[in-house]
Design goal:
single chain; 13 strands; alpha+beta
């Protein structure tokens, strides 16, 4: 009888000993991983390599979206062994970005990978001779086709990124996006910055528009490695901050999409609405982006009864004005006709490339960590995900509206159900001692989508490896695919409908 392999499973925000993760033969590693990923309920939330004992260790984290468990698989490449493995991407395409990153960072070749190209041009990449200006763009030799290059330097204050359009006249046949122009080495800085406060400030700057999403992920990770529990109140306050961030960014993006179709009235009104939300965040913690609010082990800014009262008034006013403006903007023929049927990504494509977050939910893929792997305040306060089916710009436009209303409803429910009485606050813990030789994973649902942080400690309880996955890592590929067959003039609205992050990807 075939011996069944033991695959450890943990929940979101939990830790286990690194020695509790069995090292599998690569054949077993592949077989187990593919068997899990064949089931629609499972998806890969992280797959990375890290140096260990002169060689490398691969870790894959497969999340079960039905029961909330996360399976952890491992394989070791010993020192001196050949750094070449069969690619899993040929069997399960969403793994393409993970294998490309592993290849770039550590020189591990994945044979039969269909698209083994650089991801970020990290300063510590394995092959330093590979320069960003030599990126191997896909090309077609033809006298009838032409290429249009945009960036990496753009007008205004947009971050750097290069877009290469392959066109037949005005029609885009293929778009390839090259990132990595501002690689900051964020992950390696987590190992250099030993103090928890330093790391906490660092995580706030992974992506400046998703502060709550990333800092909650960091806090959950550190708390699990230190073995401490936080109160239900603190967890709820973190979830409130996350939903306020979601509302603020979504309404700002709705405003920006109105700009792109010259609906300036809607753009102005929605932009003003964003100000009310971020001003409330500023009155809470002193920063409109929420920096300083979420800290490992506690907070310096307790959510008070006065803030609760102010937020309830703000939500009533915001919702009334938002609905009045949304009823106009979302039914205006000049807006609807410009967005409808543009930039479609199908549900099948979304599954194929591992799309996450808002972009996935607009293409009929119900993927939301708040519901499937609840964290912080969502463990005791259920959040139901809203899904659309068409996967076009209008769907991504409309989904923002529905998610804003969903978040307002959820916030009202928890605000009325909790008093937030003045008590001694749970202050941050800046001198936590983490357990040695541990692995932990945390998932959150930022406004852009699924965020995953993983950490490994050494025998002294210090961080030995820190791995970050921003949702943009998956979703840039969707922008590329959804522009095919459109005119190049459709790119700005399609791009803005995703609102992806350069810095969150470049790390």
């Amino acid at each position: 009888m075939e011996k069944k392999l033991h695959i450890p499973k943990i929940k979101n925000g939990q830790a286990l000993g690194i020695n509790e993760i069995p090292i599998l033969l690569y054949t077993d590693f592949c077989a187990e991983m593919l068997a899990l990923l064949k089931l629609p309920k499972n998806h890969c939330v992280s797959y990375f390599a890290y140096p260990e004992e002169g060689g490398f260790r691969l870790l894959a984290c497969i999340a079960n979206d039905k029961n909330g468990s996360i399976a952890i698989l491992s394989h070791q490449i010993n020192k001196g062994a050949k750094k070449e493995l069969d690619s899993l991407t040929q069997h399960h395409f969403p793994l393409h970005i993970f294998e490309r990153e592993i290849h770039e960072n550590y020189g591990i070749k994945f044979s039969k990978h269909p698209w083994l190209k650089p991801v970020r041009f990290a300063q510590n990449r394995a092959d330093k001779s590979l320069q960003i200006n030599d990126y191997p763009f896909y090309q077609i030799n033809s006298d009838e086709l032409h290429e249009v290059g945009v960036g990496p330097i753009h007008a205004g204050i947009i971050e750097p990124g290069h877009f290469r359009f392959l066109c037949n006249g005005e029609t885009v046949l293929h778009l390839e996006i090259q990132l990595g122009w501002q690689h900051r080495g964020i992950e390696s800085l987590f190992l250099k910055k030993k103090k928890i406060l330093q790391q906490n400030i660092l995580v706030e700057n992974i992506a400046g528009d998703m502060v709550a999403g990333h800092t909650i992920a960091y806090a959950l990770l550190i708390e699990s490695l230190a073995g401490i529990q936080t109160s239900e109140r603190l967890n709820l306050e973190r979830a409130i901050a996350l939903e306020l961030e979601r509302i603020a960014i979504h309404v700002g993006d709705i405003s920006a999409l109105c700009v792109d179709v010259a609906y300036n009235f809607g753009a102005s009104v929605f932009s003003v609405m964003r100000t009310g939300i971020i001003n409330l965040i500023q009155s809470w913690c002193g920063n409109r982006l929420g920096k300083g609010l979420i800290r490992a082990g506690g907070t310096n800014f307790q959510f008070s009864p006065i803030l609760k009262a102010n937020l309830l008034v703000l939500l009533d006013d915001f919702e009334k004005r938002f609905l009045a403006m949304a009823n106009k903007a979302f039914s205006l023929p000049s807006v609807e006709n410009r967005f409808d049927g543009i930039g479609i990504v199908t549900g099948k494509q979304a599954q194929l490339i591992g799309l996450v977050g808002m972009a996935a939910r607009s293409a009929n893929v119900k993927r939301d960590i708040r519901e499937t792997h609840p964290f912080a305040g969502f463990t005791k306060n259920y959040y139901e995900t809203f899904v659309l089916v068409k996967g076009d710009v209008y769907s991504r436009f409309l989904l923002r509206k529905e998610e804003i209303l969903n978040s307002i409803s959820w916030l009202r429910e928890v605000l009325y159900a909790n008093s937030f009485a003045e008590t001694s606050p749970e202050l941050p813990k800046y001198h936590l001692k983490m357990k040695p030789e541990m692995f932990s994973i945390s998932l959150t649902e930022g406004w852009r989508g699924e965020i995953c942080h993983c950490a490994i400690t050494n025998d002294k309880g210090e961080l030995a490896h820190y791995k970050i996955k921003d949702p943009s890592m998956h979703n840039w590929k969707s922008l590329e695919l959804s522009l095919r067959g459109l005119e190049i003039s459709d790119f700005p609205i399609n791009n803005k409908s995703y609102s992806l992050s350069y810095c969150g990807f470049d790390l």
